[in-house]
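subagent[fold] <- orchestrator: predict structure for attached chain, return tokens only, no commentary.
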Amino acid sequence: MTCGVLCFPARSSIKRKSFGGPISTEPRINDRIRVPEVRLVGPNGEQVGIVSIGDALKLAQESDLDLVEVAATARPPVCKLMDYGKFKYESAMKAREARRNQAHTIIKEIKLRPKIDPHDYETKKGHVVRFLKAGDKVKVTIMFRGREQSRPELGFRLLQRLAEDVTELGFVESQPKQDGRNMIMVIGPHKKKAEAKAEKAAAKAQRASDSESESESVEPESAPAE
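subagent[fold] -> orchestrator:
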């Protein structure tokens, strides 16, 4: 029977296109490599040459290794004989060690007043020195209040003085600039975070070694003769 109006299929009957899962970043290995020939590299990096995929898989099987595609866009693709499980494990360990040793530069902040007294200035400067020695950047903020806002040169001179006092440890990375009621300057450390961390660890180890040497040099008192 012909319908007098346009008839549409039910929503549930419409097939939706499947886009699949995320694209894998893993290289193709062994029988997943579907090309007629490959440029083969041996397990020690030696160049074997262009061989058929069948011969490459046979060599991998005879060597008890995996055939791993290392350059898929080359023509023909480059494959290498290796222990893929061991390669993945070593790569994961190297990545973990790199993340562990990675040191991020942290920006510390110190706030000053234009008319800070000498004692407070020395205290604040001590904090800046400690941060720079640790390899951290320091954001120095001069806070102006009331009529102090009409004397920005006071803050500028204070920032210049501080930069000169710590010039052996850091340098002015961002020159003083006015930001509303504040004046801001950034001092960067001469030493990188990783270097400062390594020096701190070396100094700690040296102190421990010196302490052990001192304890070994102290001889026990001999008992009095009867």
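orchestrator: received. Logging for downstream: Residues 8-21 have pLDDT under 50 and may be disordered. Helices lie at 53-62, 84-101, 118-133, 152-165, 193-217.
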